[in-house]
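Worked example 2:
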Amino acid sequence: MKYRELLITRLASQLIIGSSKISVITGLYGIGKSDVARNTLNFLAERKYFRYALIWVRLDGFNKVSDLVKELFDRIVLYSLDLTEK
């Protein structure tokens, strides 16, 4: 197994099995962090591991946690169900 494939498998496993559904990928510029994130999300989405959504947020450019929280809420689509009988 190639090293990149190993990283994708390990990250996917952490998200599926781990107690946290949030992961942060760090490393040197140009090493392939975005590629690993993108391929991991594609892997999980194709296999429908998460019922509603997968969200990828680049953290560069966020200076405050409140800005990150706003970005997350802006990306979340809320579904409403009307369960009343008609």
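Residues 78 and 84 are 19 Å apart (CA to CA). The chain has a mean pLDDT of 83.
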